[in-house]
Amino acid sequence: MLKTVAEVMTRDLITVKRQTPLGEAIKILAEKHISGLPVVDDAGELIGIISETDLMWQQAGVTPPAYFMIFDSVIYLQNPINFQRDLHKALGQTVGEVMSKKPITISPDKPLPEAARLMRDRKIHRLPVLDNSGEIVGILTLSDIIREMAASQS
Questions:
Q1: What's the Cα-to-Cα distance from 119 to each of 77, 87, 95, 115, 140, rounded to whole Å?
Q2: How crowded is residue 5: how many other Cβ atoms within 10 Å of its Cβ?
Q3: What gap in Å lies between CA 36 and CA 90, rounded to an integer?
Q4: CA torsion, points 138, 140, 145, 151, in degrees to nearest 10?
Q5: How many domains does the chain have?
Q6: For 73-106, how does the pLDDT look when each residue is reduced to its tens digit (9 = 90+)?
Q7: Helix H segments across 1-154?
Q8: What does the pLDDT look like over 7-61, one tens digit per residue?
Q9: How confident is the model over 108-119, as pLDDT tens digits?
């Protein structure tokens, strides 16, 4: 019988809010040895995810998009909107400025292989788990799936 997301997900959630200082979120990630945190609004609704990848902009910085000029016109070879978004992440001071918005989610009753395929195909490391009312009830991470795989080998 296939396990469900609910049987494998992490239930003891640590969440942060949009206005949480970035330094506080970084400290939580480091102390708890986790790679991402759900971001919730004042009503507890999921509004984003802050992950190690989001934080790398702080250290790595941003490279302006390549462009060339013809007469008095600048033609960008990449979308300058992406540069603006990345720059905002690199300079952000709060979770809300750096987080990834509109995270992909899953419901707790979904089979674990479906969640694993979704994570593989979308190249994501965590899936917030929402119940039927939209409340966040857990998070499924790659580590959760690997632990389940190891347990099933025993």
A1: 30, 27, 23, 6, 10
A2: 24
A3: 17
A4: -10
A5: 1
A6: 666 556 666 656 665 555 678 899 889 999 999 9
A7: 5-8, 22-32, 52-60, 80-91, 95-98, 112-122, 142-153
A8: 999 999 999 999 999 889 989 999 999 989 999 999 889 999 998 887 775 565 5
A9: 999 999 999 999
Distance from C-alpha of 8 to C-alpha of 112, rounded to nearest angstrom: 8
Using CB atoms within 10 A of its CB, is residue 109 exposed (0-12), middle (13-18) or buried (19+)? exposed
Q: Which domain holds residue 123?
A: 5-153
Question: What is the C-alpha to C-alpha distance for residues 29 and 36, in angstroms, rounded to an integer?
Answer: 7
Say which CATH number the domain at 63 has.
3.10.580.10
Tokens at residue 35, please?
């790679």
B/e letters for 110-142, b = 16+ CB within 10 Å, e = fewer, are bebeebbebbeeeebbbbbbbeeeeebbbbbbe
